[in-house]
Amino acid sequence: MWAETCEEEEEEEEEEEEESSSESAPRVKATGAKGCRDMAKSFTNGQRIRHTIGINKTWIGTYDYSRNGIVYDGNFYKSLNGFAVKHYSIDRTDRCKYSNGWKECECEVDGKWISTYYLPG
User: Fold this and answer.
1) Residue 37 domain flag
2) Higher pLDDT, 89 or 120
3) Neighbours of 32 (CB within 10 A)
4) Are residues 40 and 29 in contact, defined by beta-carbon separation less than 8 angstroms?
């Protein structure tokens, strides 16, 4: 019996997301080395941040500068990882718990969604 590893599941999800991105809002993919990992330096107060599972399960939260975290549906998340892991725990219970929020999330800049992975500090 074949059992997928977390990496294989993540690769499949990334492929699904790439395929579905052409149907959603405009997206910009940044290039270069890994970016800043400090939310206070990377986001502005009220900036929208999203995490998507597949093609139709998207959470869009807002960055709260005063608390240095993400607010979604009345809940506060102190990290992008926490935001993504909670989304998986609700909408994808069969998936492993590991998540890299900086790699999986996007933020809205000038009406376009860009990866949080390469953000400058």
Assistant:
1) yes
2) 89
3) 8
4) no
Parent domain of 81: 6-115
Residue 86 lies in a domain: yes
Task: Please give the tally of structural domains in the chain.
Answer: 1
Taking only the tens place, the pLDDT of each residue in 75-84 is 999 999 999 9
Examine residue 87 and state whether it is found in any structural domain, yes or no: yes
Token look-up 């996007």 returns 106
Encoding tokens for residue 118? 């390469």
Which amino acid belongs to residue 4?
E
DSSP 4-69: --HHHHHHHHHHHHHHHHTTSS-EE---SS-----HHHH--TT-EEEEEETTTEEEEEEEETTTTE
- Angle at Cα 109 formed by Cα 18 and Cα 115, nearest 5°? 35
Rounded CA-CA distance 83/66 in Å is 17
Tell me the CB-side half-sphere exposure of residue 33, using CA atoms within 13 A. Answer: 3
Dig out the tokens for 38 from the structure. Answer: 């400090």
Tell me if 74 is assigned to some domain.
Answer: yes
Query: Model-level pTM?
Result: 0.71
